[in-house]
Design the sequence.
């Protein structure tokens, strides 16, 4: 990286969100590339529609997306809303919109439109532990959201020891109250 | 003999392991014994949490029956023998085997299998590539796996919701219960051999795995 490129890196503070479409490889093998592309497009369209300008798509990652929200409360609220819409569409349209979502609040570095750094790696590891339909968040995210979103509760999943991450990360499951 | 640590009434046990097998036995006792001795055992939250950091050692832990336990592990198998309260495990690889839980169970394993003998509470299990087996669950059951199979035997008091992608799914229902069954698969075979009703709901979805519901 040149000195000019290094100086172009900015530190941000907010929530990194990873989504992952479970079973996408098998769906593609069964239904073909066009159906697979349509499924990916539907995932992205529903996310963009729900998210509006409260967050942004950082990049596409094969069968998932990386998103950014300045406000971690908005990130969790939106992620739960995504899951509710995915679940409704899955049954109504018989599509496997089985999306796993992981969220971490931190201070990634921005390089152009992209985000990099330790906190991005943590968020990517969290999504691996999520089941389809779930929103898992780091303890840092749950602490930040706290009681600012009274309609959201966090159920403790437990500490996770992650490869390449020196300290265990507390993981919580975000759910709607009631 | 390893090290012994006193335990406050109602205290929880937390185990963190980078690698190595973790065996925990719940039995009639009121303290915790750890073999071999580990340096990093801390009591936190006014004595309400005892945390054991195992590093890369294999550990044999003995604790009181009914204790609430959470384990975070990167690799190495986890074996929980005896009767626990609620159980939470987050592992990256290695199998997870649980004997009995009287409370809720939440086990996540990225690439290893999960086996639960008996869960009296609600049971939530997820493995990305390992198989999942529950011999008996009295509460609600949710299980998801991408490439592994899922087998669940339910008492039929609360709902069962299962996802598989390519692995097969089997649900066995207690004989006197009549579930409302909803099965969806893109290419897998669907089979329901128990009398349906409205006692509780079974939702099963797969992409290519077979889905089967039978009576016990």
Sequence:
């Amino acid at each position: 990286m040149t000195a000019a490129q290094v100086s172009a890196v900015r530190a941000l503070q907010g929530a990194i969100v990873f989504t992952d479409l479970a079973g996408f490889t098998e769906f593609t093998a069964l239904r073909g590339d066009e159906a697979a592309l349509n499924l990916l497009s539907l995932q992205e369209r529903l996310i963009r529609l729900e998210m509006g300008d409260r967050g942004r798509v950082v990049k596409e990652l094969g069968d998932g997306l990386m998103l950014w929200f300045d406000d971690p409360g908005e990130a969790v609220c939106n992620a739960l809303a995504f899951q509710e819409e995915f679940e409704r569409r899955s049954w109504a349209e018989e599509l496997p919109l089985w999306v796993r979502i992981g969220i971490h609040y931190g201070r990634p570095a921005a390089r152009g439109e992209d985000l990099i750094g330790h906190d991005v790696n943590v968020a990517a590891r969290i999504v691996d532990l999520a089941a389809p339909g779930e929103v898992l968040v780091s303890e840092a995210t749950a602490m930040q959201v706290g009681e600012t979103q009274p309609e959201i509760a966090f159920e403790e999943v437990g500490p996770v020891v992650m490869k390449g991450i020196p300290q265990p990360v507390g993981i919580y499951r975000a759910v709607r109250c009631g | 003999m390893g090290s012994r640590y006193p335990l406050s009434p109602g205290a929880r046990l937390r185990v963190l392991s980078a690698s190595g097998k973790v065996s925990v036995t719940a039995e009639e006792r009121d303290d915790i014994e750890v073999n071999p001795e580990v340096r990093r055992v801390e009591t936190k939250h006014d004595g309400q949490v005892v945390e054991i950091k195992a590093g890369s050692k294999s550990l044999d832990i003995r604790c009181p029956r009914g204790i609430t336990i959470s384990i975070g592990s990167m690799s190495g198998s986890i074996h929980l023998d005896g009767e626990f309260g609620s159980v939470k495990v987050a592992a990256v690889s290695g199998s997870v085997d649980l004997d009995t839980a009287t409370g809720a169970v939440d086990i996540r394993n990225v690439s290893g299998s999960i086996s639960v003998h008996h869960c009296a509470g609600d049971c939530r299990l997820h493995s990305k590539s390992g198989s999942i087996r529950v011999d008996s669950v009295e509460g609600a059951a949710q299980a998801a796996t991408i490439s592994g199979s899922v087998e669940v035997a339910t008492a039929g008091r609360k709902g069962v919701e299962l996802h598989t992608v390519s692995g097969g799914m089997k649900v066995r229902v207690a004989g006197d219960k009549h579930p409302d069954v909803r099965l969806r698969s893109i290419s897998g075979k669907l089979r329901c051999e128990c009398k349906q009703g409205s006692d509780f709901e079974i939702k099963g979805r797969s992409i290519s795995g077979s889905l089967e519901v039978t009576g016990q």
Q: What stands out?
A: Chain B touches chain A at residues 14, 16-18, 70-74, 88-90, 92, 106, 108, 110, 124, 126, 128, 142, 144, 146, 163, 165-166, 184, 186-187, 205, 207-208 (CB under 8 Å). Chain B has a mean pLDDT of 92. Residues 75 and 93 of chain B are 5 Å apart (CA to CA).
